[in-house]
Amino acid sequence: MGEVKTISQIIESVSPYYQKKKGPEATHTLVYDSSSETLEPVYFFILDLMNDLGFAPQKLVDNFSSTPGSGHFSEMGSKATMMQQQAGKIMGDVNTVLRSVLNIVYDLKEFKMRLQSYEGLKSKKKEEQEAAVLSLKQIWMDKVDIAKGNSSIKAMAFGQSGFQTLIDAFLAAKDESLKDSKGNEIDLNDRIKRLLKPRIIEFNIWLSESEKELRKRYELEKDYLKSQVNSLKLYSRWVRPYLTAAQNLEQKEKLREPALVKMFDTIILELTLLGKKKLDIAGEAEGGNFPKDFTSQKFLKDIKRNYYTCILVDFVFRGIPQRVGQQSHFAFGGRAEITFKAYALNDDELKKFEEELTKSDTNDVLNLIEGASTESLGQLQKDIDEFLEEKPKEDKKEERKISFKDAFEPFSALFGAYEGKSETKSTKDKPKETIVKPDNWIEENHFRPFVAGAAKDKVFDIFDIYKKSHGMMSFT
To answer: Reduced to 3 DSSP states, what percent helix, strand and coil does the chain have, rounded to the nearest 5?
Structure first.
């Protein structure tokens, strides 16, 4: 496993501008140390302040690590185990239903192939009719007549002398009059004829009744398949909260973190917020910050990508968990280190950042789950859709399919998938990788400098407002 990148490192690695600059526009750090006050007021003050300033922050990192000897470790471990057990129990039911779906799909495929032979009997082509009759006669001998044991056609033809022509005669006979497909009477001795006539009658009765039963069974199996797919939907909805909770309760390993001494009662929390604010080009041009030409509709329409003032806030909290009364939750007092960083990013850089964040080791657990589930489940997508929605080709596009992928929609959301993905898209088709192009002349000389300056000002404002409101003395 490669080195885990921080959010700042990912941002600076995806942007050609910051690769050259080698750092954010501005960085400010606050240190708040109080064993009696908790982290929550610090976090929510900054969160609300960023919202008030129009940055609409999103949480990118939310990790915790506690020492093995602490009560918090035991409490979280017990909760995680309960969630894992419940998830495992439901996943066992999911696997049972999944095996049932597999068996139904294979049965339906076999039924469909059998029904093709019956369809051949109705063909206008004589060759196809004859081929269908021969195929069904073989099935009848193998599945029905074989139950007679030693008196079956195959057993007598292979095991008793004088009946070697019995199979060929049965296949050639058109009806109980023992005429071939051309209407000529088959030249057979009386003993063979006496054996064949009742068999031909039995075959014709079976031919009529078996088609009805097979079609009925085919429709019942399709209904059962639909029921099982709906069961998968239900189980997936039930298991998702447990899987989410189990993953959220997992601790991040910090084996070499000096603050986490095994027998100390210590916890480390890591939180990261990223807020962004879109550059209003027309508004800034009207305010005199850009040339007046930037307000024209033609100019605004030709702009390929937007620019954003971005504020990254990293929280690192080291504290001592204290149980609240006799309750099962804890309060945390200790040292909070908050780092504010300013960036100026465009649409391509933010999209590339999202891609890299998904691939980073911070999401390794989700990646393992996705590789073990969604790729394998997608193999049955086409078969499920084929049986559940047997419509003429021209009608298939108009109706939404009840697909196997739909059954695991909640899992897709858990694994980081997006709703905009096509249902029929193959799991092997990878999305195109975003290429971040360097700034053009207007971006380099107008948009980027302006957004970078705004990011410097705003990040200082947030830093300064919090510092003054709390009378902080430890800052950089």
So the answer is: 60, 15, 25
